[in-house]
Amino acid sequence: MKVGWFVHGDIDGFFGLFVDNLLQLMLIAVLCGNVCGMPPELVYGRILPGAALSILFGNVFYAWQARRLAIRTGRSDVTALPYGINTVSLIAFVFLIIAPIYFETRDPKLAWQAGLFACLVSAVLECVGAFAGDWLRRHTPRAALLSSLAGIAITFISMGFVFQIFAMPAIAVVPALFVIVVYGGQIKLPWGLPGGFIAVALGVGLGWMLKWAGYPYFQPSQEAYHFAVHVPQSAVADMLVFLTNGQGWKYFSVIFPMALFNVIGSLQNLESAEAAGDRYDTKSSLLVNGFGSIVAACLGNPFPTTIYIGHPGWKAMGARWGYSILNGAVITVLCLIGGVTLVLKVVPMEAMIGILLWIGLIITAQAFKEVPRKHSVAVALGLMPALASWALLLIETTLRKAGSSLYDVAPKFGGDLYIFGIISLSQGFMLTCMILSAMMVFVVEGEFVKAALWTATAAVLSFFGVIHSYVLTPAGVQNRFGFGADKAFALSYLISSVLLVVLHYYSRGEEPEKTREISH
Q1: Which residues contact 186 (CB under 8 A, 6 or more apart)?
Q2: What integer best gives the mean pLDDT of the chain?
Q3: Helix/strand/coil for 321
Q4: Which domain holds residue 437?
């Protein structure tokens, strides 16, 4: 079979993945500059060039991996795993490691060095986790792996962008509806034009026409741009500051769950890709995932890169592996010339986000479609912790914008919102999604001992504070790790586990009775 490098669908896939990556780069520029006090020469001269090469490294590998799978299987519909900066780790590292150090010392360079250390340690832990990945995939039901992805897709991806779309209807609604209609209806456009490209072009056209007509819907970035080529530099010496003085290890309680989060998220994305028809080797995929973050840290980027959510959506768009190469190349060029803000001078962000909305819808639908029908209740149960995490984000954002904090207001909620239940369910939500969903799958199948093992796992994780446990501080909700961190949840899960074992033996006793009744 003759295998090329690009197809029409790669253009659509590129636009979607590029928008997602661009959003993360914008977050880095805004948060590092405005929150952590980092000067432009650090953000644009060190962090973004390092991010560029780590993103390029991963995109090229996963494109090569997909093309090799296509050649080996004789298929032409293989889609590469998407890859980029992990949003959750980005937010966690900024607000739980980098920003606190900056607020304490007012030294942005020291804060950046702490981020590099966190990225490196997280990446090494991911590489270690690669060797247990296959075992986890074999022993975890598909519903458990897909439900938390669906929860993230419908909340943090779809709903966030829905709000943005409907806040700016003049520019955003038409492109978003165009994407949904074209891809939902599987409409082939004239001359093979890619739907995502046309949607973005519509949004850009509407934005500029309204601007020229005097309407304030599209405001191009006012940040000055000066062309310069920023060559990536080694940051190993900066990274070793926290590795050698021991200060960085006190943030291990943040680094470890983020590394675990990345491993589990990557496993879920691999399972999602397999459900869509593309099975990739677990160990090599996770090792490259971790190594990409090591490259990032060594070149000055403190934010881990990872396998992205969205493979089924890009596949449905017709993307194969060329979209990954295009994304890596364009992101690299933009970062090396400091051109992230340059894009926003021309293209309204609202013109592009309809593609990401569609990706979120596809991933949510896949979680229900690619599992046995009777397991759909397990998927639904697994959505709930992600919904809690998203609700907590909305509440915290609202209070912060109102000049208050959750620390001050939480005791006043009473029984109106059960805010402490929202916080508990949101802590370690990806693990909780998996555990509740897996437990439900085995309950539905009548395998109560396996369900008991998953519930006992929740008891252990609760006891050490990996899930549910937290402390509410003036700085926000923080993880609480340690021996006996949350005894109430641990005891509740342990009792539930014992009850499931009792049900196992009870159900075994019931089977002979049913057999005798049938025989009579």
Answers
A1: none
A2: 82
A3: coil
A4: 372-520
